[in-house]
Amino acid sequence: MVTILAIESSCDDTSAAVIADGYVLSSLIANQDVHRQYGGVVPELASRSHQSNITPVVTEAVRQAGISAGSIDAVAFTRGPGLLGSLLVGTSFAKGFAIARNIPLIEVNHLQAHVMAHFILEKGKENRTPAFPFLCLLVSGGHTRFIIMKNHYDMEVIGSTIDDAAGEAFDKCGKVIGLPYPAGPVIDRLAAKGNPEAFRFAKPAVKGLDFSFSGLKTSFLYFIRDMLKDDPDFIERNKNDLCASLQRTIIEILAGKIIKAVSQTGINSVGIAGGVSANSGLRNAMTEQALKRKWNLFIPELKYTTDNAAMIGISGYYKYLRHEFSGHEITPLARY
User: Fold this and answer.
1) Which of 7, 179, 246, 248 is positioned for an S-S bond with 77, CB 3.0–4.6 A?
2) Which domains, from first to last, does the chain contain?
3) Between the CA atoms of 314, 316, 321 and 322, what dihedral angle is there, to the nearest 10 degrees?
4) CA angle 86, 59, 32 (to 5 degrees)
5) pLDDT tens string 271-280
6) H or E segment to which residue 56 belongs
7) For the whole prediction, is pTM greater than 0.85?
8) Tens of pLDDT along 321-335?
């Protein structure tokens, strides 16, 4: 049995997991609520919180897995991309753990790990995993891109955002109407009570399989500004409809590109990954399109959509099988 300890510390969540032969034995996340009051992640506060959280989180992950630290075969960790200070905490801990036990160190690309979340296995559950080639839309706060997986190790980016990511559009538009950070989950909840056809916002036309969301953000900002001139209470009276209309617009942009990507590649094994894949509207839209177009659809469980160490662990597991180990001179990368 191959047992991997995984550590994820790319942003503001400290996470640890234990993976054995591809199955999750434990997966924990320590969140940092301190950033809410600032409307975004403060890098220095994030790195300090990681320092406080990482030892107890790893200790508890090993305990919940029902194993001893001595039975761990390798340590997988997020090398990047992410906040450099946060990555440094996870990288340093992983190195120390590996050196102390004389076991291999495995670096993992955070973005690839989100795609690999589709291959996480859980005991006692029906585990569906994609066949290759697999087309995945990675959509999160910092990234929006299409990736073709040719196998567990070979991934090709065929489309990406030319400016802002979809998750960033959710958060920044949410901030405009006074929603707390992160705004994405709040918009999802309020949108369920609103009319998605109430308002129309710009959908930038971008050729090929690339995305753009900066025009949508500008359109939303100017619309709110103009409405507030005549009605100071416009946001409060229309908040649910604003959220529903914004969410519909972003989903239409994403869904349209997915349809185009499937058509161009001929791949009908399709999935979404990343934090925005937790959005209920997007999940429903993908399910509807999959039924209509006969796609073989894969969407990770909600707990594996946001940043988590289980996805790092499954990536590390497949790297372990190929003996893709890292030297201890390795350093974290803010941009991978």
Assistant:
1) 7
2) 3-120+305-321 (3.30.420.40), 134-299 (3.30.420.40)
3) 130
4) 40
5) 999 999 999 9
6) helix 43-65
7) yes
8) 999 999 999 999 998
